[in-house]
Amino acid sequence: MDSRRLAAFGLLVASNLLWSGNWVIGRAVRDVFDPIALNWWRWLFAALVMAPFGMREALRHADAIRRRAGLFLLLALTGVVGFQSLVYLGLRTTTAINAVLINAAGPLFMLICSWLLERDKPSHRQIAGMLISFLGVLIVVSRGQLQTLLQLEFHRGDAWILVAMPMWGLYSVLLRRAPAELRGVAFAFTIAAIGVAMLLPLYVIDVWGQPWRRPTLPEVSAVLYIAVAASVLAFIAWNRGVTVLGANAAGFTLPLLPAFGTALAIIFLGEVFQAFHAVGFVTIVIGVVLATYRRS
Predict the structure, then answer these.
(1) Residue 223 and residue 217: Cα distance in Å, rounded?
(2) Does residue 2 lie within any of the structural domains?
(3) pLDDT tens per residue across span 53-78
(4) pTM, to two decimals
(5) Total structural domains in the chain?
(6) Closest Cα to residue 94, out of 140, 125, 49?
(7) Is the N or C terminus of the chain more exposed, i.e. has fewer CB atoms within 10 Å?
(8) Of the candidates 207, 4, 255, which has an alpha carbon nearest to the alpha carbon of residue 107?
């Protein structure tokens, strides 16, 4: 592996570590922020942080943004509005460990989206890997109980996380179509700004009529973390890594997020890692490795 690809892989690892904190914090503040409100404040602060570094470059390439307006709207809708809001909604009623383990099946949806959008036809090995990963997801959402699967009694929070996953797959595949002249902070700022504009009417509806209260220091710190670390730094690192390695190869690093997230949830939230978590996670990872491994 050359130095450029190795650096890109390091960026993907770092983004997964930063994102794992976002999932744990999203669970921790579930009773303080509504999902839409938390997502709006997250991306508003993220856009403000990136503005001094990316706004001028984004304005300089305004023509390119207008020419690809549909693409930028889709990127903001899937990566900022849809995926993140559904994740925070799911974390209200499921554990952080369950959520990050389901997220490990992300490569399954990346492969599907690559097939649908890029006509990147999956091989028999990739299909087998996707089915194995999906079996791992079923083990997690059913809590390892066959009766739950037979009666289709899935946990509501797990279902929201599972619905969010295709949006992340679509976002990651669409990144390859971004204009080459707009990258880095300018690109991330553009997506964040569009996402904030999309979220604004939803946020107004969400908080309309609710009494305002002064947020506490821990609550402000939580929002700042997910705005700066999990939004600005992690998304720039992820976008760059996907650009160099491609969506399918980048998906290979996603099992690191549940590994990091599980450790953080146990340490900071006191959650318990159970046997069905281990079985489901191992099954998901086996499927991901089978589906994404390529001989050099």
Answers:
(1) 10
(2) no
(3) 999 999 999 999 999 999 999 999 99
(4) 0.83
(5) 1
(6) 140
(7) C
(8) 255
For residue 102, what are its two tokens?
A: 């389901």
- Give 7-62 as a DSSP string: HHHHHHHHHHHHHHHHHHHHHHTTTTS-HHHHHHHHHHHHHHHHHHHHHHHHHHTH
Whether 93 maps to a domain, the answer reads yes
**Residue 82, both tokens:** 């849809």
Report percent pLDDT > 70 for the chain: 92
Residues sharing a CB contact under 8 Å with residue 287, sequence separation 6 or more, in sequence order: 105, 108, 128, 129, 130, 131, 132, 133, 134, 135, 136
Q: Are 92 and 157 in contact (CB under 8 A)?
A: yes
Residue 261: both structure tokens together = 């997230």
- Determine contact, residues 36/202, Cβ cutoff 8 Å: yes
Q: Residue 111: how many CA atoms within 13 Å on its side-chain side?
A: 27
Q: Is 34 part of any domain? A: yes
Q: Within a domain: residue 20?
A: yes
Positions of the chain with pLDDT lower than 50, given as ranges = 296
Three-state DSSP class for residue 114: helix
List Cβ neighbours of 190 (8 Å cut-off, separation of 6 or more). Answer: 54, 58, 65, 72, 182
Q: Which pLDDT does position 144 carry in this prediction?
A: 74
Question: What single string gives the DSSP state of each residue in 120-185?
Answer: -PPPHHHHHHHHHHHHHHHHHHTTT-HHHHHHT---HHHHHHHHHHHHHHHHHHHGGGS-TTS-HH
